[in-house]
Automatic annotation (TrEMBL):
Gene Ontology biological process: cytoskeleton organization
Family as reported in the entry's similarity comment: Belongs to the STRIP family.
Ranges where the record places region Disordered: 212-236, 251-273
Biased composition (Acidic residues): 260-270
Domain of life, per lineage: Eukaryota
InterPro entries, per database record: Far11/STRP (IPR040185), Far11/STRP_C (IPR021819), Far11/STRP_N (IPR012486)
Membrane spanning stretches: none
Protein name: Striatin-interacting protein 2 isoform X4
Amino acid sequence: MGLLDRLEVVSRERRLKVARAVLYLAQGTFGECDSEVDVLHWSRYNCFLLYQMGTFSAFLELLHMEIDNSQACSSALRKPAISIADSTELRVLLSVMYLMVENIRLERETDSYGWRRARETFRTELSFSMHNEEPFALLLFSMVTKFCSGLAPHFPIKKVLLLLWKVVMFTLGGFEQLQALKVQKREELGLPPLAEDSIQVVKSMRAASPPSYTLDLGESQLAPPPSKLRGRRGSRRQLLTKQDSLDIYNERDLFKTEEPATEEEEESAGDGERTLDGELDLLEQDPLVPPPPSQAPLSAERVAFPKGLPWTPKVRQKDIEHFLEMSRNKFIGFTLEQDTDTLVGLPRPIHESVKTLKQVTRVGSQSSGIGSHQGILAKEHKYISIADVQIKNEEELEKCPMSLGEEVVPETPCEILYQGMLCSLPQYMIALLKILLAAAPTSKAKTDSINILADVLPEEMPITVLQSMKLGIDVNRHKEIIVKSISALLLLLLKHFKLNHIYQFEYVSQHLVFANCIPLILKFFNQNILSYITAKNSISVLDYPCCIIQDLPELTTESLEAGDNNQFCWRNLFSCINLLRLLNKLTKWKHSRTMMLVVFKSAPILKRALKVKQAMLQLYVLKLLKIQTKYLGRQWRKSNMKTMSAIYQKVRHRMNDDWAYGNDIDARPWDFQAEECTLRANIEAFNSRRYDRPQDSEFSPVDNCLQSVLGQRLDLPEDFHYSYELWLEREVFSQPICWEELLQNH
């Protein structure tokens, strides 16, 4: 309480000193702790205590003051080089707020009732407008746009983005809460439950070895010449079977070293590099990570082949209608729009096909917690999404606005956030993508690009080799954290907006596409992605809270070069998966955007990412390859059969999707522009109907009763009584009225 009282003093230096003391409390009073566990325990305890004492509100007022501090902005603008010293106050404030949000956000079973209540109260305060102020996330978004516009180049953008990501995750919910909300919403709309939990399915998937262009060098040297193999079909089949099983299921090789790519892939990769303005050589092959010596190779007999496909096949209502339209045109000569029940005149195989598309398959035994028992698990092929229902409802509201009445929109945190972001949403998306571009490892420093290193560069540049290496690691780590926070933030926003209303999701998606998000992500992957994921841009002895509990060893250039013992940088792997999921969200069911992937030559870039042996990352790469396979030509499919097999094994099947053949009627190039224009018109109609309703709309009722209109009380200004007689004289008595002209005109 004493510290909070002293936060209100006029002197900026004294306020900063008190804020540092509060930061020491939020960090866990590490000077009085003996272990890392104690530091984390007291950090969590103190953050709840600080919130209950009203610290967050006090720091929010100080943050407003610092944002509006024109003196600091002008001082930073005048400096030739901005350093970490220009954002000291902001960094202290944002650090305290970040620690409070992160500690209170995480739930534990041992939390007391008071802490649980405090968590829900805090979530409500951050989600909704309190005391006529905007939600906290919008304040942080405004800081991002202000930084990108050049008005406040001293803002510590890494801390702002991290806090923004955690606030959105806290207020809207993470991926597990999102799945629970999806199940709840489907139940409210009367839709059948989901066939599987996508998070659990991906967790149980195994990574496949990357597809190799030719046999390994060792095997090709030992194998007999092709002329001898022609006559020995059994040996050839045995060799190929062995190779396939090793490629797909052998867990010994972390990453199989590939031979140089074919001529066709080299040409397409070069074209893609030129199109994306990529700076890295697509064909550079760095030495890959060797397998750990302790891990013994698996024998061919121990290879466990998966049983069945991981995903339940799906079919959309649109796909059934499309199939029946083609069948009716072929056999009858006319169509029935939106009729999937009438099968008169169609041959028996068509009846069976429609039945299969609509059918509910039933699976046998199912195990429970006590023991296995015979149960029935229903899996329906026909899938009706929440988006389908929302689009249908929107069409009805546009068609019959009077009879259906006004739509009741629940005031959820997601809805509040969208309403607040709506006016400036294009600027927010452009700002985030600008920062992402500046932080991408493939980007070159340009004079007109924004400076994202303002809160990491020291006042004095390093003079020794050790200092330079340490700063280089710090700069790379800084960029990686920025990429991680932006990718996670954009993915969370898209997923929550899609669940809240499909046109909110489409609005954000369109602005991301218009801001060149698709080529930006492809440019990000236009590097040796394996080296990026195995990068070691961290110094473990300087990580918190290890650095303040243990005695720091002397740092040397050798220890910095060695790095830590982690085989992967999970931060970078997380960022890559998020960016791939983001790309999937933008291109799914959008033929025009899929064609952008083809135009930018994304196939060799994505295929190279399959070298990373992680199941979730491979799944989203294969999804992106699947949607563009039909456009890549027969020769590409013929020379990439192992990739095609991996798509078949890992990606969900759509019942009548001929992704592998390219006969899709929806793939007509002249429809692409019309598709985007129609979508944009629907989005504008939705935003206009729900958010831009004027008070006197054309559908508002009109009072035609003279007595009722004259009897209404009107609020007149105070000075009207004094000027009323002058108004009568000027507007009524002094204006001659020619009644004859009025009669003639009518």
